[in-house]
């Protein structure tokens, strides 16, 4: 069944696997695209070491893009993180254009300098701001982006600063613009997909549900923890820019303790150690020094499945 989202992106089902720092290598992304959804390479895709060099960052992304192309002939996307400092964005933009990546996920702000070259090359743009607002959605529509992702506070990863759940943010954005809106945050099974469509979304954008899959680069112990957990296990703490949630680890217990003692957001963010804490916790399975970021939709996930099985279940109504 075609929807505006499947038509724009040239995919079979209206489902996108969201970028997840460190946790989206070529094999995983290609598996999502081969299953009929859209796989997206996220920051540090396929990497096991950190580089701070923008050119090297882009060349690593080029190698991962080339691997995806070898594994699938279906559409896939790369992430462009766009903030006020474009040091890392420029070289990745160049690589995306040179490698003819058909779709880009923009995470961050709308910037004409990035947007215009993408449009000129006919690259489709999915825009997922960290903080969706009515004004931002209208501006994005005026800019000419193809699809807007409305993310609720239920999501895994860095949550929006305003505490608006997926159930509330999706209809709010749907009513504000006429381009297709996809729902992100807390979608764990086909009931979540149905709810998103009932709220006016024309597709779903999911991360956590893809983590405990055979193809996911997450550590085996992390996959097991996710399938054995419910949303009640999640711990929420203050950090920068707002809040973060994680399954319990030794590190997270320490952060929560400092949070309850009134520590500053800066101190808590330092303890959390951003991408390093995610890499240690989720790729290495190190619960002393890392965290396990997932959304509140994990409760119905009860087994480690293949990506194809996850897509089949979520997209049951689109067969
Ligand atoms: C472990 C993890 C890491 C994430 N990293 C990123 C990231 O680097 N960039 C980004 O734009 N979104 C990131 N996200 C958000 C996802 O792309 C997606 O929006 C989110 O997972 C949707 O909510 P859900 O997890 O409840 O499905 C991350 C999510 C998770 C769970």
TrEMBL record:
<keyword id="KW-0288">FMN</keyword>
<dbReference type="Pfam" id="PF03060">
    <property type="entry name" value="NMO"/>
</dbReference>
<keyword id="KW-0503">Monooxygenase</keyword>
<dbReference type="InterPro" id="IPR013785">
    <property type="entry name" value="Aldolase_TIM"/>
</dbReference>
<dbReference type="GO" id="GO:0018580">
    <property type="term" value="F:nitronate monooxygenase activity"/>
</dbReference>
<keyword id="KW-0285">Flavoprotein</keyword>
<keyword id="KW-0560">Oxidoreductase</keyword>
<comment type="function">
    <text>Nitronate monooxygenase that uses molecular oxygen to catalyze the oxidative denitrification of alkyl nitronates. Acts on propionate 3-nitronate (P3N), the presumed physiological substrate. Probably functions in the detoxification of P3N, a metabolic poison produced by plants and fungi as a defense mechanism.</text>
</comment>
<dbReference type="InterPro" id="IPR004136">
    <property type="entry name" value="NMO"/>
</dbReference>
<protein>
    <recommendedName>
        <fullName>Probable nitronate monooxygenase</fullName>
    </recommendedName>
</protein>
């Amino acid at each position: 069944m075609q929807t505006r989202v499947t038509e724009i992106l040239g995919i079979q089902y209206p489902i996108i696997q969201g970028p997840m720092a460190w946790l989206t290598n070529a094999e995983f992304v290609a598996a999502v695209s081969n299953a009929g959804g859209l796989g997206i390479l996220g920051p540090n895709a396929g990497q096991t070491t950190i580089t701070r060099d923008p050119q090297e960052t882009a060349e690593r992304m080029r190698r991962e893009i080339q691997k995806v192309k070898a594994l699938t002939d279906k559409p896939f996307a790369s992430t462009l993180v766009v903030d006020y400092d474009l040091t890392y964005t420029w070289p990745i933009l160049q690589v995306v254009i040179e490698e003819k990546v058909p779709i880009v996920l923009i995470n961050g702000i709308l910037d004409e300098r990035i947007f215009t070259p993408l449009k000129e090359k006919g690259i489709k743009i999915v825009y997922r701001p960290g903080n969706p607002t009515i004004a931002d959605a209208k501006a994005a529509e005026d800019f000419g982006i193809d699809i807007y992702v409305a993310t609720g506070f239920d999501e895994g990863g860095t949550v929006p600063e305003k505490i608006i759940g997926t159930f509330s943010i999706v209809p709010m954005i749907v009513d504000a613009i006429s381009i297709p809106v996809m729902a992100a945050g807390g979608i764990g099974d086909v009931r979540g997909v149905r709810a998103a469509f009932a709220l006016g979304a024309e597709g779903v954008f999911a991360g956590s549900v893809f983590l405990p899959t055979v193809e996911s680069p997450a550590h085996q112990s992390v996959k097991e923890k996710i399938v054995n957990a419910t949303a009640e296990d999640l711990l929420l703490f203050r950090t920068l820019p707002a809040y973060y949630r994680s399954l319990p680890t030794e590190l997270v217990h320490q952060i929560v303790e400092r949070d309850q003692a009134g520590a500053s957001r800066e101190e808590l963010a330092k303890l959390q150690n951003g991408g390093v804490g995610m890499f240690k916790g989720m790729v290495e399975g190190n619960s002393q020094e890392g965290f396990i970021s997932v959304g509140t939709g994990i409760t119905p996930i009860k087994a480690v499945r293949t990506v194809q099985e996850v897509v089949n279940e979520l997209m049951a109504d689109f067969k």
